[in-house]
Amino acid sequence: MTNPADPAPPRPANQGRRVAARNRAALIAAAREVFAEQGLNAPLSAVARRAGVGQGSLYRHFADRTALASAVLGENVRQIERAAAEPGATLTSVLGVVTWHVTRSTAFVDLLRLRGDDDKEGRELSERVRAVLAGCPAGGHELAVDDLMLAVAMVSGAVAGPLDRRERQALAAWRLLGIDVGPLRPVETDADV
Amino acid sequence: MTNPADPAPPRPANQGRRVAARNRAALIAAAREVFAEQGLNAPLSAVARRAGVGQGSLYRHFADRTALASAVLGENVRQIERAAAEPGATLTSVLGVVTWHVTRSTAFVDLLRLRGDDDKEGRELSERVRAVLAGCPAGGHELAVDDLMLAVAMVSGAVAGPLDRRERQALAAWRLLGIDVGPLRPVETDADV
Amino acid sequence: MTNPADPAPPRPANQGRRVAARNRAALIAAAREVFAEQGLNAPLSAVARRAGVGQGSLYRHFADRTALASAVLGENVRQIERAAAEPGATLTSVLGVVTWHVTRSTAFVDLLRLRGDDDKEGRELSERVRAVLAGCPAGGHELAVDDLMLAVAMVSGAVAGPLDRRERQALAAWRLLGIDVGPLRPVETDADV
Amino acid sequence: MTNPADPAPPRPANQGRRVAARNRAALIAAAREVFAEQGLNAPLSAVARRAGVGQGSLYRHFADRTALASAVLGENVRQIERAAAEPGATLTSVLGVVTWHVTRSTAFVDLLRLRGDDDKEGRELSERVRAVLAGCPAGGHELAVDDLMLAVAMVSGAVAGPLDRRERQALAAWRLLGIDVGPLRPVETDADV
DNA sequence: GATGAATGAGCATTCATTCAT
DNA sequence: AATGAATGAATGCTCATTCAT
Fold first, then answer.
1. Rounded Cα distance, D54 and D69, in Å
2. What's the mean per-residue pLDDT of chain A?
3. How many CB atoms lie within 10 A of CB B38?
4. Rounded CA separation C48/C57 (Å)
5. How many angstroms separate the CA atoms of D52 and A56, rounded?
6. Is it the case that chain B and chain A have 3 or more CB pairs lying under 8 Å apart?
7. Which band of pLDDT confidence, cut at 50, 70 and 90, is reported for residue C142?
């Protein structure tokens, strides 16, 4: 018979609040990968596992799926904002960065396809992208920002499958729209978490 | 509390084989709605429920999700083929029908984004759409069929949200591509099963 | 819209009561195969399908799984009884026939492992086998019939896997028991249905 | 009728990680009973229910049916190995322990009848039993280990029905084989997990 | 009598979410 | 704060059984 009062299994030490920030970053990094691969509906358990973190910690840092997704996509948007802030940035160069994210992340594509209903977080992020595009020196293009956003969504719709295919499709899509994009690339970050 | 001596578990009447065809049609109709709203991964149980039919009946008529999806999307593709067969059909008019389906059905959009791997049914349907487009008298456009299919995928990527918004976005997307589409419309069918 | 009063699909002609007997035989034949391959718990739908008969017909002829199983195993037992009735039959020759069934039919093995509870049909069949063995001229063996039945069950427990393996195991088992068996064989029937 | 405004779906208290080990043990105990009664194909939901544990917990502890079965049968095999390691152990005494398990557990009998195909776990366990028998001081018997394993399978085939009947049949089967077995008994364990 | 469709209970499996420690 | 186990609802799928025609 099992003794019902047998001692609790050894509890892993609480490593203090220093770890908190580290865990948050690990969760975002893991979510970026998982969402990029499987889209915004990927199992959250997979994120926690890849982050090397308990399920509970995930929920402590991010109240729900949306919060986590916002954190991940927020980084993407921040990169786009940084790209636009670089000296010599043009609409062309910024679209290159946008397209880089579109080809890399299924989640970023999903962002542009969200239902308008329960969203809000998503709309804010979209708004920020729109603001960036609106502020770009339009290198010869006379496109309204609405059309630019539409064009980004359209390119998103064109990509599917493995990475190389996604890149080819994205470039072909931009060509079909008659819009130049710079090289597909991320943005260097100071502290690349 | 349930009476443990409940005599007869009241089985809803088996309505005989008369309803078979009706059920099949109801399943397709329900699947069209559910897939249109929630996409190709919608729960099949929701389809059965909306059709007012047991789970088993669904599986009797359609061996798996693919079979059901094919039945639904097959109708869509058939409509497109019919549109191209109408007297006086042009690329423009056919694209209007294609776009009608894109705005109506999330599932139709999904069709154009399927991974090539395990699919086959889906690829066949895509192929049929491509064949229709390839055979259209290209009213002034000099687009290769590859680019046409890409354009359709791009338009698909642009639509989201409520119906009226979807329509506006689709039309704007085509305009951005510089491609004319006819009026968004389905095709009249003799027996609209 | 579908006309709710559309005509019933053409009904397959009722082919008269001559077919009844034929169907019954087909069901037994199919069940023999299916039960032999998959054991007594095989899906009854598989039996109906292999018999080329509707599910309903199966249930008309056989009220439940037990009835069908009894029909199948009854034939096996009848063969054993016939073997014992052949001129020159000995315990050895009869055990050869018994063993033939053991190696051929998973269901026959299952028969010997049935729970005693709800059984009855099964016990009757077992009884008949026992009666046959009891009546055999025991060619030199001094085994009580209880022990013979036990031995048969033991040999049943030894067989598993593909046919050739089953045969080797059965013969090894009998050898281990020090009991001779004749050649493994079925019995010729006059009208081999 | 259920009040549609039911506020809180009363979730049974999550009793924390204290119960983890207890639950695991409860699952194994429940599985031992259920598998013993119904064989290796018993519904896992029955195991979870009898353990007083949610379905999810079962799957957390045991990835699949095989894992659970291995845990249960592994204990059986370990007991047999311990029996062979006892001072004064003989083939006779070990066979008594083996037979004890055969009479107690339908699952243990199933183990000996597994198809070789997709198994592996099962074969490993069988191998361990064989190894134990091979290593036993054969008290006067000159049986090859192959024949011993066959004999065990044969005895397994002989047992069916209620416990007392199973015991009588097993002993009679061994007698028929001319092989001595010690008293049917389990092995005392220090910590009976 | 035969037919084949309808039905729902049952089982396996996954996953979002909560909570004691 | 972190942990990781518990939980059950949801979903896919199979099958025994009933029944109108």
1. 18
2. 87
3. 15
4. 8
5. 24
6. yes
7. confident
Q: Residues D16-29: what's their mean pLDDT? A: 87
B-chain residues near C1 (CB < 8 A): 192
**Which alpha helices (H) appear in chain D, and where do they start and end?**
19-38, 44-51, 55-61, 65-85, 91-104, 106-111, 121-135, 145-158, 163-177
Chain A contact for B123 (CB, 8 A cutoff): no
B46 is near strand F: CB distance < 7 Å: yes
Average pLDDT, rounded, for chain D: 87
B128 contact partners, CB below 8 Å, separation of at least 6: B77, B80, B81
* Residue in A60, A53, A46 with CA at minimum distance from that of residue A15: A53
Q: Is B118 exposed, middle or buried (0-12, 13-18, 19+ CB in 10 A)?
A: exposed
Whether residue B72 contacts residue B27, with contact meaning beta carbons closer than 8 Å, is answered with no
Looking at per-residue pLDDT, the higher value among C110 and D12 belongs to C110
How far is residue C19 CA from its own chain's centroid? Answer: 23
User: In CATH terms, is domain C15-62 a member of 1.10.10?
Assistant: yes
At A120, the pLDDT band (50, 70, 90 cuts) reads confident
Alpha carbon D46 to chain centroid distance? 17
Which distant-in-sequence residues (6+ apart) come within 8 Å of A45 by Cβ?
Answer: A55
User: Which residues numbered 2-31 in chain C sit less than 7 A from strand E, measured from CB?
Assistant: 12, 14-15, 17, 19-20, 23
| CA C15 – CA D63 distance, rounded (Å) | 53
Subunits with at least 3 CB pairs below 8 A relative to chain C?
B, D
> Which residues in chain D have their CB less than 8 angstroms from residue C156's CB?
157
Task: Find the nucleotide nearest C57 (Cα to C1′).
Answer: E2
Calculate ∠ Cα B148-B154-B156, nearest 5°: 110
Task: Give the integer Cα–Cα distance in Å for B69 and B52.
Answer: 18
Average pLDDT over chain C, rounded to whole?
Answer: 87
> DSSP letters of C63-126?
SSHHHHHHHHHHHHHHHHHHHHHSTT--HHHHHHHHHHHHHH-HHHHHHTT--SSS-SHHHHHH
Record the pTM. 0.87
What is the spatial distance, in angstroms and rounded to an integer, between the CA atom of C66 and the C1' atom of F15? 16
CA of C108 to C1' of F20 (A): 37
**pLDDT score, position D77:** 96
Cα separation, D187 vs D81, whole angstroms: 10
Domain residue limits, chain D: 15-62, 72-188
Q: Rounded to an integer, what distance in angstroms lies between the CA atom of residue B18 and that of residue B30?
A: 19
Tell me the two tokens of residue B54.
């047991």
pLDDT, tens digit, 9 for 90 and up, residues D48-106: 999 999 999 999 999 999 999 999 999 999 999 999 999 999 999 999 999 999 999 99
Which of D 72-111 have CB under 7 A of nucleic chain E?
none
pLDDT digits (tens, 9 = 90+) for A26-79: 999 999 999 999 999 999 999 999 999 999 999 999 999 999 999 999 999 999
